[in-house]
Amino acid sequence: MNTTTIGTHPSTGVAQVARARTASTPWLSWAGLIASAAIATGVYWDISWHMTIGRDSFWTPAHLLIQFGAVVAGLASSGVIFRTTFAGSAQAKQTSVNVLGFLGPLGAFILAWGGAAMLTSAPFDNWWHEAYGLDVKIVSPPHMLLALGIFGINWGAVFLTVAELNRAEGRNRKLLEYLLLATGGFIVIQMMTIKLENTGRIFQHSAFSYVVISIGLLLILESLARVTGHRWARTIMTGIYTFFGLTMLWILPLFPAQPKLGPVYENITHMMPLPFPLLMVIPAFFMDLVWPKVKNAGRWAQILFGGLAFLAILVAVQWPFASFMMTPAANNWFFNNNNYTYFTPPDSPDMRHVFVAWESSAAMFWTNMAIAFVVSVVSMWLGVVFGDWLKRVKR
Which of 102, 225, 274, 379 is deepest in the core (most CB within 10 A)? Predict the structure, then answer.
């Protein structure tokens, strides 16, 4: 016999379940954030390990921390999917997506896939290095599989938190806003880590470097700023990138280490940090500061303003800062500019403190700089479109 409670609208029950689910599942958003933070830290540490020691085995602390992030994301998301599929209420299942008969939040499935891809890449990478050498290439099939898995975990955490955010109210919504912005900060860290080879200080007087910096950056910052609606969203995300970079810059050199592979050009005695973070927090702060005066303008006015202003301010502050970083004044613990990998040749541009010009002429320089501004505007446009779409995600 079916029993219906008089006076209760069906949508009320679904809304109550959605509110209850929002109140009970932010732990999975926390798991996604913890996984993203562990992976970003592990990747940074792993690069430092290669710069200082070389890849001596798979079982380095950096590798284990990266895989810890994969395990956290995989187990947490799988638990939610199995619980929703086999023990979830009918209303809870209505707010889920169906993948091959399994039910759960969209973000949980992306998280699970990312964790599985990362864990699969571990033995593949170990075999690859045994077959082709310890430090062969950054771009290799196992590394690309690992990168796809990291991408899945980062954006799985975003989709999961966005779905919860769009159903939340009050204090719980505010908590989810900060969780989402923190996850966005670690995505910025991962993105800029990938770009390191083309954005180091020796390239920061070349327009091509700013083309690379602009690719996808405002897509992340603007989309998550729009879906959260937080007054200082862009500053928070770039601030996390800056704080993380400075913390690692100052802490890693405190640990002793020596190279285990050759050839050794530099007598390394401690862990090598990555370069001083880019000054992206300055244009991000400017955009947050003036955005209340811009947000009521037309969409394309916002896109053009955001894309052009962000890059123009970044170039204006990064260009002279790069010049400063080439001087002896930057050779101290704060800027930590006098650190070199064990395999850096004595005649390299880094050792000689000189800039490397990608462009062979002024015409090529200004062409690339124009491309950089176009890429920045396109990234801003994608951020606006993607951010408006994310506001509608509720599963």
Answer: 225
